[in-house]
Amino acid sequence: MALTATPIPCLSDNYAWLLRAADGRLAVCDPAEDAPVAAAIEAAGGKLDLIVLTHHHGDHVAGVPGLVARYGAKVIGAAADRHRLPALDQAVQPGDVADVLGSRTKVLASDGHTRGHIAFHIADSHILLCGDTLFSLGCGRLLEGDAGEMFASLAALAALPGETLVCCGHEYTESNARFAITVEPDNAALQARIAEVRAQRAAGQPTLPSTIASERAANPFMRAADVATLARIRAAKDTFR
Ligand code: ZN
Ligand code: FE
After folding, report:
1. I want to staple 164 with a disulfide (CB 3.0 to 4.6 A). Which of 59, 123, 160, 190 is the partner?
2. Is 3-238 a domain of CATH 3.40.50.10610?
3. Mean pLDDT in residue range 215-223
């Protein structure tokens, strides 16, 4: 049974992702805060079965206690991060298969932004929940991991089917675009994506989900040919204004 994924804006630029099964059951990924997520849940039927977490940062987990208290939702997160995540009902590791509202969900290693970061690939629904690893036209800062780990993480995501929906943790696409075009000024797919992003933001719409095919064509971090190239452009982005 396939799921749909809808972004819920949280804080200034975060997205939690509301997952909905055909039978109406709901899950949420990375709730940065509880109020906007609870509002979305109430609008969608008022029950929350499951919360899935990609990594331990507060802007991805701070809504968990309030949502668990209100809805009694179960929580899935990385075993490696158990010591710094809200209480988990199911601790998973890369390679595991979890059940998300009846859909078989592969847990992927996604180190780089943090160590212990994971991603969730729900193949029957073409949904990727990738937290702060892959953004549209960007990737997460290397706060704990290194460029080699991020390179491996992005390569694993690039290998997913092109139609896979990239459901990431932040609306960073416009600022990522300003940097990306300095790396690949002649990339026609990037130019087209930037035009699309400008139109989406001008209309007040999210730029997400993107797709793996779009990121493979336009995202210089995913397109980096080797670890050294990724390290160089990630460092350049860190100081880009
Ligand atoms: Zn983060
Ligand atoms: Fe974040």
Report:
1. 160
2. no
3. 98
